[in-house]
Amino acid sequence: MKVELRLNGGWLSLTVRDNGCGLPPGGRNKYGSFGLVGIEERIVILGGTCAVFNEPDGGTTVMVSAPVVGGPDLPLPQPQEHGSGSAVI
Question: Does residue 55 form part of some domain?
């Protein structure tokens, strides 16, 4: 799994990629499940965008971006590397 969080030009973007089997057709709208649909609805309310798609070689990518409005101008924390190639912020 790969997770990227970026702040660029007043937009906060999050990308999550995995190397699984991908989503089945209609998998985003499974009855009784609101995970991805709920994320998309909330991001749109914030004035952002959401994209979910299967990768050609397997896996799924979820990309969300939302404008950052107000708030203090604090520097972003720098990730700390861990042995497995992951980073903790």
Answer: yes
AA identity, residue 33: S
Task: Say which amino acid occupies 14.
Answer: L
What pLDDT digit, counting tens, does each position of 61-76 carry?
999 999 987 666 666 6
The answer to whether the predicted template modeling score (pTM) of the entire model surpasses 0.70 is no
Number of domains observed in the structure of the chain: 1
Q: How far apart are the first and last CA of the chain?
A: 16
- What is the rounded (10 degree) CA torsion for 39, 44, 47, 49? 70
Q: Does residue 85 form part of some domain?
A: no
> Can you tell me whether residue 43 is helix, strand or coil?
helix
Q: Which two tokens stand for residue 64?
A: 């969300």
Full domain range(s) for residue 34: 2-70
Asked whether residue 34 is assigned to any structural domain, the reply reads yes
Region of 70 (left: φ > 0; alpha: ψ -120 to 50; beta: rest) is left
